[in-house]
Each structure stands twice: as structure tokens, then as C-alpha cells.
Amino acid sequence: MYGTIATMNVKKGHEDQLISVFNNTDKAKGQIAWLLMNPDNQDEWIGVAVFESKQAHIDNANRPETNEMYEKVIQHLETEPTWTDGNFLITNI
């Protein structure tokens, strides 16, 4: 499995709107899961997207729908997210 982890600085007062964007977005082809965390010990939220393969992740990144969703997400963030991509070595989903 392959995926990406996003760290996001959510604008104050935009938390519910950001959650709504993610809740109203369908899974992409090859996507296994999407997780969104509001950590106890930091201000930034963490998003984790899990895909069947690196190619599925790349295909998703190139979809117009993904760009449209990103444009909606960025409206609720202070800065662009930081991204970490890679292979998940252990999974228990």
C-alpha cells in the first residue's frame, strides 16, 4: 500500500467547513482509506490517504476532481499543507 500524510494548519472557525469538504468527497479509484486527525498535542491537523498502489495515488493526484477538492480544502487552511508520500510497510486496516 502507498499513501500520503498531510499536515494542515486549519483556520480558526473553519474546522466544521473543512470536515464537511472531506465528508462530501467520494473515495477515488484505488483509494482504501482517508483519515483526518485533530491531535491532542499540536495545532496542525493530520490527514492520511491510503491507496492500493503508488500508481493509484498518482492517478488520483492527476484527476480534475482531486484538484477541485484541493481548491475547496485550501480555503480553510492558513498555509498549504505539507505532504509526506511513501509506502506503508505495516497495515492492519
Detailed description of the structure:
- The chain has helices at 15-23, 54-61, 64-74, and strands at residues 2-8, 31-37, 45-51, 82-87.
- A four-stranded antiparallel beta sheet has the order 2-3-1-4.
- The radius of gyration is 13 Å and the shape is globular.
- The termini are close together.
- Helices cover 30% and strands 29% of the residues.
- It has 93 residues and is α+β, with helices and mostly antiparallel strands.
- A hairpin with a 7-residue loop joins strand 2 and strand 3 (45-51).
Topology:
Blueprint: E1 2-8, H1 15-23, E2 31-37, E3 45-51, H2 54-61, H3 64-74, E4 82-87
Antiparallel strand pairs: 1-3, 1-4, 2-3
How big a fraction of the residues is strand? 25-35%
Structural class: alpha+beta
Helix content: 25-40%
Which descriptor suits the 3D outline? globular
Number of helical segments with 4 or more residues: 3
What is the average of the pLDDT values? 95
Tally of strands: 4
Topology pattern, helix = H, strand = E: EHEEHHE
Largest β sheet strand count, sense and barrel closure: 4 strands, antiparallel
Distance between the termini: 11 Å
**Model regions low in confidence, pLDDT < 50 over at least 5 residues:** none
The strands making up the biggest β-sheet line up spatially as 2-3-1-4
- Rg over C-alpha atoms, rounded to the nearest angstrom: 13 Å
